[in-house]
Amino acid sequence: MTEEELKARLPAPIAARVQSLKLAGGRVTAILDAAGLDPAARESLEGATRDTLGQAEGVDEVRVATIASRPERRIVAIGSGKGGVGKSTLTANLAVALAREGHKVGVVDADIYGPSQPRLLDNEGERPVAENDKLVPVESRWGVPVLSIGHLVEPGRAIAWRGPMAGRALGQLIDANWGDTELLLVDLPPGTGDVQITMLQRFRPAGAVIVSTPQDLALIDATRAMQMFEAGQIPVLGLVENMAGYLCPHCGEASDPFGSGGAEAQALSREIPFLGRIPLAPAIREASDAGTPPAAGEGGQGEAFREIARRLAARLEEGAA
Ligand SMILES: Nc1ncnc2c1ncn2[C@@H]1O[C@H](COP(=O)(O)OP(=O)(O)OP(=O)(O)O)[C@@H](O)[C@H]1O
């Protein structure tokens, strides 16, 4: 049995944590990264590794050591069941709002097929440097460091990566030199595919926020996203309704082109906190395209984002994640 074959016997979530695995004279020595795990989870990780490897042919003794190479840093994933519902816009604005309140927050743009954080946070065209094999996040003028595949590839170039490559790329963004950042908001790609599952298994976010529009279809998709997190035992910290109610830029009148209240009702029925709603407002799109997140300003739309950020911070503080 080779070291590679031994590693292949481990379930994917354990294999993803293997830092090194050596076999010599019937003795296996495995070093695992236990970052983010509490003592009980660490113990069960060690036990499961010992059991699996101990059953392999030619193995007489298994030694398992765990290390926590990454500092304690909470990851909150921002997900949605489908594209275009405003997940990236919400991520950028939550980060800016939290930074304004004094939190040390960074953004990982894991939407590797359509990265938009460099534009939203206005550091497009900049390149992260690498120090000791780790990327150093790119600063933005909003006090929020960012790492995005958009910083690594030419703007507008199509990214047609297969799952494993995408997973590795995501790993480099999260496992970067985040310094004193305490909270990482991760803008996930829409849907429930490979990248999302890798993210859950390997990086164990402390919690997830789901974004949906009020439409029925989006809500069905949002439910799927919630189920994915729940299946991975990642607490869903709350649901945000975006593009709720259209605010006419001319007369200020509010209307509900996609219905209203659906996301809140859905959150209630699943016993998930409803974190708030953001209106559909052309000014939000314009400000976002210009790299000036509304949450950085004083307007009403900025306040809507800030309110959601405060509720999220409260959820994190009360130990929901
Ligand atoms: N509340 C809003 N009012 C008006 N426009 C909005 C609002 N929220 C987002 N948008 C616009 O909708 C478009 C899609 O938003 P965004 O890129 O944030 O969505 P997404 O869910 O991250 O999409 P993708 O799946 O492509 O990553 C953008 O042009 C954005 O500016």
Could you characterize the architecture of this molecule?
- The chain is an alpha/beta fold.
- It folds into two domains: 3-67, GMP Synthetase, Chain A, domain 3 (2-Layer Sandwich), CATH 3.30.300.130; 74-317, P-loop containing nucleotide triphosphate hydrolases (Rossmann fold), CATH 3.40.50.300.
- The chain has helices at residues 3-9, 12-15, 39-54, 87-100, 117-120, 163-174, 194-203, 216-231, 262-269, 282-289, 300-317, and strands at 18-24, 27-33, 61-67, 74-79, 105-109, 130-131, 134-135, 146-148, 183-187, 207-212, 236-247, 254-255, 274-280.
- Helix 4 crosses helix 11 (300-317) and helix 6 crosses helix 7 (194-203).
- The longest helix is centred in the C-terminal third of the chain and has 18 residues, at 300-317.
CATH topology of the largest domain: Rossmann fold
> In DSSP terms, counting alpha (H) and pi (I) runs of 4 or more, how many helices?
11
Which ions and ligands are bound to the chains?
adenosine-5'-triphosphate
CATH superfamily of the largest domain: P-loop containing nucleotide triphosphate hydrolases
User: What is the radius of gyration computed over CA atoms, rounded to a whole number of angstroms?
Assistant: 21 Å
Structural domain count: 2
Q: What sequence of helices (H) and strands (E) makes up the elements?
A: HHEEHEEHEHEEEHEHEHEEHEHH
Distance between the amino and carboxyl termini = 40 Å
Gross geometry: elongated
Helix content: 25-40%
Q: Tell me the major beta sheet.
A: 8 strands, mixed
Q: Enumerate the spans where pLDDT stays under 50 for 5 or more consecutive residues.
A: none
What is the CATH architecture descriptor of the largest domain?
3-Layer(aba) Sandwich
What kind of assembly state do the chains in view correspond to? single chain
Strand content: 15-25%
What's the total count of β strands? 13
Alpha-beta content class = alpha/beta
